[in-house]
Here is the input.
Amino acid sequence: MNNKKSNQNNQVPNSENQAAKLAVIGAAITTLGDAITTISTGLALEEAQNQSKNNSQNNSHDIERLQRQIDELSNEIRQIKKMMMR
Here is the structure.
């Protein structure tokens, strides 16, 4: 009988020990998940910055193209005005 009581007392600390180990493992997994999330967020931010930079460059090219078209149209209007003045 004493032996049974001793086993039960030993099982309680073992159960608590296992629970503590599981808690540590769970915390480690959570920390790893948070690290992966942080890396993912950093990569997404970097991609957004690159995309913004590319859009800015594309906008700059578009503006230059539009300016050339405006210049060409202005020249054509001048030529038409000269032709009408003759």
